[in-house]
Specification:
This protein is of the alpha/beta class. The protein is built from 13 helices and ten strands. This is ornithine carbamoyltransferase.
Length: 349
């Protein structure tokens, strides 16, 4: 077992134009419209809260009150998928259409980024044909080039480095379940991958403590760890890095895992399954967590990652989490394309 614990005295950041009063009142002090979302590292605490507030507001007004909100009428989104996905495609297509917009799905058979046409040219072409792009790609550098060359917002639908739209759904799910986010402890037990990276770039901004267990050799990127340490220090949260799953789970409110073998890693499957032995989340793992512990998984799930007893238990939030992919992508797109102000009271974070 090798662990490192980073904590600091409480330090609150308050940026000019992002004060609590302005945020709570819905004042237009947030420069979200027209921006891209490649990583939550680029978003402040108050901006992330604003995205979640808009998402919760749309969910309430549309799902609970059956309101029709054609906020994106006349707008279109290009959805570039180098990697397949159930949740990302369905949430974006249905969510964008529900708001009156038109989604255009582009697979690798429709568009070959950097092959038949350069990413630079693709970005400029799409900027004249649609209002926003969501790209699910292998390399994060592809997103960076698209964002650099496009004159419209680019959303990271997943890359090898980050998966920000998944984490927004996770935060909304936890906020709905616990009533607030600040003070929660999330335990990540699994691979040091893109989903974990997105947690590390945002959790501290919401007052969430992180306890991370990865096998040796599967740790998060060093640059991500460095930034997560800085954020933890700035926001007064704790960051634990260990190779012991039980140590990570100890005292946690939320247990989280993800696939051990991502798309493109199929040749590593046997070795990865061997290296991750002992990392399956079970009720025994939860026995050292808080009495109110819950479970998240971004899906698709394999049984070696979490057993049925946990996955299908009342502690599992995986299906509300999957549904919230739709509401949070809707909240994100509305925030990047419009000046929408939430109608429900400010959510507690």
């Amino acid at each position: 077992m090798c662990s490192r614990l980073f904590s600091s005295s409480l330090l609150k950041r308050l940026k000019r134009g992002h004060g609590t009063q302005a945020f709570s009142s819905g004042a237009a002090s947030f420069a979200l419209k027209g921006r891209s979302c490649l990583t939550l590292r680029d978003f402040s605490s108050e901006e992330i809260k604003r995205l979640l507030w808009v998402s919760g507001d749309l969910k309430h007004r549309i799902k609970q009150e059956n309101q029709y909100l054609p906020l994106l009428q006349g707008k279109s989104i290009a959805m570039i998928f180098e990697k397949r996905s159930t949740r990302t495609r369905m949430s974006t297509e249905t969510g964008f259409a529900l708001l009156g917009g038109h989604p255009c799905f582009l697979t690798s058979q429709d568009i070959h980024l950097g092959v038949n046409e350069s990413s630079r040219d693709t970005a400029r072409v799409l900027s004249g044909l649609c209002d926003i792009v969501l790209a699910r790609v292998y390399s994060h550098s592809t997103l960076e080039e698209l964002s650099k060359e496009a004159s419209i917002p680019i959303i990271n639908g997943l890359s090898d480095l980050y998966h920000p739209i998944q984490i927004l759904a996770d935060y909304l799910t936890l906020q709905e379940h616990f009533g607030s986010l600040s003070g929660l402890t999330v335990a990540w037990i699994g691979d040091g991958n893109n989903v974990l990276h997105s947690f590390m770039m945002s959790a501290a901004k919401l007052g969430i403590h992180l306890r991370i267990a990865t096998p040796k050799g599967y740790e998060p990127e060093k640059s991500v760890i460095q930034e997560a340490r800085r954020l933890s220090d700035e926001h007064g949260t704790q960051l634990l890095l260990t190779s012991d799953p039980m140590e990570a789970a100890h005292g946690s409110n939320v247990l989280v895992t993800d696939t051990w073998v991502s798309m493109g890693q199929e040749e590593e499957k046997k070795k990865r399954l061997d290296d991750f032995k002992g990392y399956q989340i079970t009720m025994q793992t939860g026995s050292v967590a808080r009495p109110d512990w819950t479970f998240l998984h971004c899906l698709p799930r394999k049984q070696e990652e979490v057993d049925d007893q946990v996955f299908y238990s009342s502690r599992s939030l995986v299906f509300p989490e999957a549904e919230n992919r739709k509401w949070t992508i809707m909240g994100l797109v509305v925030s990047l394309l419009t000046d929408y102000t939430p109608q429900i009271p400010m959510m507690k974070f």
